[in-house]
Write a structure and sequence with these properties.
- With 399 residues, the protein is α/β, with parallel strands linked by helices.
- The two termini are 25 Å apart.
- A nine-stranded mixed beta sheet has the order 6-8-7-9-10-11-12-14-13.
- Helix 7 crosses helix 12, helix 8 crosses helix 11 and helix 10 packs across helix 11.
Length: 399
């Protein structure tokens, strides 16, 4: 089934026919190709003729002859309809050698509206970003939000049951249609190994894939905990697998470049400065953690943090870990206008001591920006000296 991803689709509609390249990035299989399908359906419904839409997916073996920039440019140019706008969709274009040259040549055509996707952060970190500086807009896609996931199961289960399925079965769109946990596991196995082997090992020319997988397992097991290359190297060495901190740094860059995980830096709220040490890492999809580690040692609080972090990204925030004196605020969220909100995340605060502990970091912040306590307690909304307590599943659903 096609799940309507309204926010992403509206982004493409808003930028349609603007003289700018539309770049969609995101981890493999998060729905970029499907978004193209949805947008093309929109174009057809608006009267665009099918021959004005040119689509090439570079993960299709049939398109291997187009994986040179000259061949690609000549192929697309030869199929453009003269005198009409042509909508050009180049999916997973990082497979094309020197693709930035083809994209730039197509971009300068007055009747070309260009849309491209890639599965890696480095996709926009090199020559293309330099060459097209100021001439592209980027849409960063993620797997399904909780609200999008719920929309696929109308009135079938409670919010709590759907949340459990969401984190356990995965938020990758294709898993919604799979019938068993075995099928989901097989699908995630293929996805995980493709990301690791194609997007990390090959890209970084890693000589020891087994060690890389050990580092990934460590990170999956420590989502929401502070990590550093040295700490990871020390943990690997203690387990009998010696590795240098610089090697771990290379692995961490590869893991985040593949968009498998996100590094979240720290922000000193009172000092208004970014801190260099003690980052945290969050997963693009919690289902991958269950796939790799099973249900052992599951910290549901950190998993909920992970879900909230991803939702803040979807809503367009820059997200940091907050430091307020000796206290830590789970998330500092800054919008494009520089406005700041603070978020604390907890499974339950029904015990008075727990509530006081979770409120303390927010209370210590001297400014009057909005402050939220998001919890799994399905209680009526409450306010604690201006700190708004919300049932996190309602918040995730936009309520």
């Amino acid at each position: 089934m096609l799940i309507q991803r309204a926010e992403y689709l509206n982004f493409l509609i808003e930028w349609k026919e603007q003289q700018i390249i539309k770049v969609i990035t995101g981890i493999r299989r998060c729905g970029k190709s499907t978004l193209f399908e949805l947008f093309q359906e929109h174009l057809l419904s608006c009267g665009v003729a099918p021959e004005q839409i040119i689509t090439i997916n570079f993960e299709d073996v049939d398109n291997e002859p187009l994986c040179g920039y000259k061949e690609l440019y000549e192929y697309v140019k030869g199929r453009m309809v003269p005198g009409k706008m042509n909508y050009i969709f180049l999916d997973e274009i990082q497979h094309v050698a020197h693709y930035e040259k083809a994209v730039d040549s197509l971009f300068v055509q007055k009747n070309a509206d260009v849309y491209i996707t890639g599965s890696n952060a480095y996709f926009m970190s090199g020559e293309l970003a330099t060459l097209l500086s100021g001439r592209y807009v980027e849409l960063k896609m993620l797997p399904l939000s909780f609200a999008e996931y719920v929309s696929a199961f109308p009135d079938s289960k409670s919010k709590e049951d759907l949340y459990r399925d969401y984190i356990y079965n995965s938020s990758f769109p294709y898993t919604v249609g799979l019938k068993s946990r075995k099928q989901i596991h097989t699908y995630l196995d293929g996805l995980y190994n493709t990301v690791v082997l194609n997007d990390i090992v090959e890209r970084r020319r890693i000589q020891d894939p087994a060690m890389l997988k050990s580092v990934i397992r460590f990170l999956f097991d420590n989502i929401g905990n502070t990590c550093s290359a040295k700490r990871i190297a020390d943990a690997m060495t203690s387990a009998g697998r010696k590795i240098a901190s610089r090697t771990v740094e290379n692995y961490l860059e590869g893991i985040t470049d593949s968009l498998l995980m996100y590094k979240v830096g720290r922000f000193d709220i009172k000092g208004k400065e970014y801190l260099r040490l003690l980052d945290k890492y969050y997963l693009a999809d919690i289902g991958l953690r269950y796939y790799l580690l099973g249900t052992r040692s599951v910290d549901q609080g950190h998993i909920l943090e992970n879900v909230v972090f991803l939702e803040l990204l979807r809503r367009g925030y820059q997200v940091y870990i907050g430091k307020a004196s000796s206290a830590e605020v789970d998330f500092v969220a800054q919008d494009c206008d520089g406005n700041i909100e603070y978020y604390q995340v907890a499974l339950t605060v029904r015990e008075e001591a727990t509530l006081a502990r979770e409120l303390a970091p927010l209370d210590s912040i001297p400014d009057h920006n909005p402050k939220y306590l998001l919890v799994m307690d399905n209680d009526p909304p409450a306010s604690h000296n201006g700190i708004r307590q919300k049932f996190v599943l309602d918040w995730l659903l936009g309520k």
